[in-house]
Amino acid sequence: MPPHWYAVTVLGLADIVVCGHSGCGATALADGHDLTALPAVADWLRHADASRARGAAPPKAGGEPVAALARDNVAGSSPALPLTPR
User: Fold this and answer.
1) CA distances for 9 relative to 5, 16, 21, 81, 86, angstroms
2) Is the dihedral of CA 58, 63, 68, 74 positive or negative?
3) Confidence (pLDDT) at 11
4) Looking only at Cα atoms, what is the longest distance across the chain?
5) What is the pLDDT of residues 29-82, one digit of tens each?
6) Which of 31, 33, 36, 72 has its CA 20 to 30 A from that of 2?
7) Distance in angstroms (rounded) separating the CA atoms of residues 43 and 55
8) What's the confidence (pLDDT) of residue 40?
9) Whole-structure pTM value
10) How far is CA 61 from CA 16, 40, 46, 55, 76, in A?
11) Distance CA 41, CA 21 (A)
12) How much is the pLDDT for 27?
């Protein structure tokens, strides 16, 4: 049984928030790419700026630094969840 099904059906949760996932290609793109031609993508990837500023290793596609940045980004975004409109 998928965990989201259990959360909604058994636990009665009304909201499920996904803050990140493993193998995030966007996190790998967050550093070192010129995204001026893709302003919407660049704006979205700015959410990882605080995580990089906290000292997460520079991401490398497919490697542990990408996973570390993704985890740090989730941890850093969690305090903002109560402020997010529903």
Assistant:
1) 6, 12, 23, 22, 20
2) positive
3) 93
4) 46
5) 666 677 788 787 777 777 777 777 776 555 555 557 777 777 777 777 777 677
6) 72
7) 20
8) 79
9) 0.49
10) 28, 21, 18, 18, 21
11) 17
12) 66
Angle formed at CA 75 by CA 84 and CA 1, multiple of 5 degrees: 85
Residue carrying structure tokens 């490697």: 63
Residue 43 is encoded by which pair of tokens? 């704006």
Residue with tokens 């893709």: 38
The reply, when asked if residue 21 is annotated as ligand binding, is yes
> Is there a binding annotation on residue 4?
no
Tell me what pLDDT residue 55 has. 65
SS3 of residue 22 by DSSP:
coil
Q: In whole angstroms, what is the distance from residue 25 CA to residue 10 CA? A: 33
∠ Cα 12 4 81 (to 5°): 80
**Alpha helix (H) residue ranges in 1-86:** 3-9, 25-29, 39-45, 49-53, 64-77
